[in-house]
Amino acid sequence: MKATTTPSTVAHNSMPPPSTASNTRTSRVAPHSHIKGLGLTPEGLALSDGAGFIGQTNAREACGVVVELIKSRKFSGRALLLAGAPGTGKTALALAVSHELGVKVPFCPMVGSEVYSTEVKKTEVLAEAFRRAIGLRIKETKEVYEGEVTELTPAEAENPLSGYGKTVSHVIVGLKTVKGTKQLRLDPTIYEAMLKEKIVVGDVIYIEANTGAVKRVGRSDAYASSYDLESETYVPLPKGDVHKRKELVQDVTLGDLDAANARPQGGQDIMSVMGSLMKSGRTEVTEKLRKEVNKVVKGYVDQGVAEVIPGVVFIDEVHMLDIECFTYLNALLESPMAPTVILATNRGNAIVRGTTDVVSPHGIPVDLLDRCLIVKTDTYNREQIAKVVQLRANVEGLKLGPGVLERLAEEGERGSMRYALQLLTPASILAGLSGRNQIEVEDIGEMNELFLDAKSSARHIGSEGGFDGGRM
């Protein structure tokens, strides 16, 4: 290790000094934490560095067009292929698309190798991903009784089944809102639900007229006290009438509906319980069940109760799929309920997996490639690598000394941008062990002595395929 000018020398294997701000909570920084969107202007033009994205102006503008097509629901059943060298931002582009679409549009990411499961078929994994990427927004209008409980009186009667004890025949509930009050006579089963919810006078509740379901919203703020600490949630007195119509919106996916209907409802006996414990965690959904679910969904859509929202399936490392998956993918893209598909690969001409002699661009069969809009990602130059390194240093809260940014940009251009980014955290740990709060050029030099980038490691492999580490 090179000597550093510090007040005290600290060994590599010693523990770093305790942080003074150890009580502050730090969140994990993921590889794409800095990506917040595509960074486009309202006209759809890419900013030089916006929303955490540096460079890739053509690819970002192309993805911006795709986002608008998805929002207008004119890109369903089509595919977008992101092709480029490793480390050029293909996964970051897909994540930026998901940020632009928002939380209301389903986004289902997966890796090509996920299909090789021992529990279910390859095609089943793809079908599940497609179904999870199709949302269903159900709008339902319910009649409810809502208000603050002013009275809760159970009426008792003689038990007809035995001469001993009494039973609740009905319950009188008084509800109050800003506009008025109402007294309700309710079934004893609703009273049992109220006891389970621990409802007392002064609570704000609502009761569904059709099902009799009872929900406790909170305690009326008229009962709010002056305690410093309380576990109770206080809510204002409901407005309007006690009896009203309420519109409820629920977002589910077709995958949720498939899973709910595919799960067998066993009995309560010991054999049924043991059988459910012994079964596999994943249940394969039959095509017949999916058609039944589609029929029900179509009925909801025709009635105007529900609305279908096509989402996005993102398949990273798509060259890992085999010829059977690609054939099934063609069929899924042509199905009436198909989401938008985004594929990503870093392969050039490659053999299609599952075949021995079929060579195709990007490792994807030509018939599927013909259905794709292809977006190329460019390699980063030194200036762009420096901007990305500075952005990541800001996200991770690291300080860079003079000349460090230029050195890391040089390493990124010589090796790869990922290698330059990976040097940041180890160099910051080394600087901390040396008693400094910022990374210096000598820390980067020492990291280069300790670690190799992919290109340097490849150069040290001998002609016979062994690692010739002794003769550098």
Topology record:
Elements: E1 49-50, E2 53-54, H1 57-71, E3 79-83, H2 90-101, E4 107-111, H3 122-132, E5 134-158, E6 166-176, E7 181-186, H4 188-196, E8 203-208, E9 214-220, E10 234-235, E11 243-253, H5 254-262, H6 270-278, H7 287-303, E12 306-310, E13 312-316, H8 323-334, E14 340-345, E15 349-351, E16 359-361, H9 366-369, E17 372-376, H10 382-396, H11 404-414, H12 417-422, H13 424-433, H14 441-450, H15 454-459
Quaternary structure: single chain
- The end-to-end distance, rounded to whole angstroms, is 19 Å
The overall pLDDT, averaged over residues, is: 82
Overall helicity: 25-40%
- In DSSP terms (H or I, runs of 4 or more residues), the helix count works out at 15
Overall shape: extended
Unreliable spans are 1-27
Strand content: 15-25%
The number of E-state strands comes to 17
Describe the protein's architecture and organization:
With 472 residues, the chain is an alpha/beta fold. Helices cover 33% and strands 23% of the residues. The strands form 4 sheets. Strands 5, 6, 7, 8, 9, 10, 11 and 12 form an 8-stranded mixed sheet that branches. Helix 1 runs parallel beside helix 2. The longest helix is centred in the middle third of the chain and has 17 residues. The N terminus is likely disordered.
